[in-house]
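User: Fold this; tokens only.

Assistant: Input:
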Amino acid sequence: MGCIIWHSPKGWDRWFRPVSYLHGFLRKDAAFVPEVRSPTVRRRELGALLRRLRTEKGLTVEQAADRLMVSPSKLSRIETGHGVATVRDVRDLCDLYDVADETERDRMTRLALEGKQPGWWQSYELSQFADYVGLEADAVAIKDYQSILVPGLLQTADYARAANATVIPKPDPERLDELIEVRLRRQGRLTQDPPLRFWVVLDEAALHRVVGGPVVMEAQLRHLVEVAGLPNVTLQVISYSAGAHPAMDSTFNILEFRGAVPSVVYVEGLVGWVYMKRPQDIARYTQVFERLCAIALTPQESIELIKETAAHHKSAIPLRAQDAGNLVDS
């Protein structure tokens, strides 16, 4: 047991591409095009820069907004990345904050323009989850803890279909296809150049919960074994024998970005989505994740457990078929 370093992404292109699961799922109007940098992250990067400039000038949000004759809520949304800044907004803020460097002004103007570009996910009407997909699209690393389900980036199409079919209210067949398509398109992050560094810690319960039946589960766990061979993916399992741990009542993702863009903790639940951005929250969840890594099985031990559990699901397939036959005979 114990924490390990990231796998080196060198040689990532030797491996299969998870997006191959998309065959047969793409909408007629969908097409793979070169991705622009995530507008969600560009807005957060611009907001972080503008917030730093404002604080360096010793101004509050209210004071800066008053001088620009805009509402404080508008400026606050721009600084948090939830609002879209126009080129004029950037120009006026640079003037207010005495930014004379043309290179810096051009950089922020470019970020404002990139922040207005649509991402591929915006045509799917994902509501609040669109924000997460936008962040994920530009993250350089994600640390993911899941207690019940296999993470979306590692799900097979059949597992994803079975999991999404249980949502209340239940999506209609067309919407279900769209949700699966989004989930599988996201998996391209694992094999694009450069690939996302993805570190997953799973509770053993996720391996045993039969989502979609034993056939689906056996295929899903075999897929986990295969994906774990990617040099940029680290997979660890917390076995039942590890006992209690600090994240038993939670699941969370820590998303890390390049440059000045701050990290984000994402927590998802039945009541909605929560994003934590304060440095103390990032530090706390990072500490929890490190503890989970320390008590989890090593990656190799985890793979062996996954293989054993996959074999268990496979052995249950004939039993399910026999039970079905008995029902027919009766």
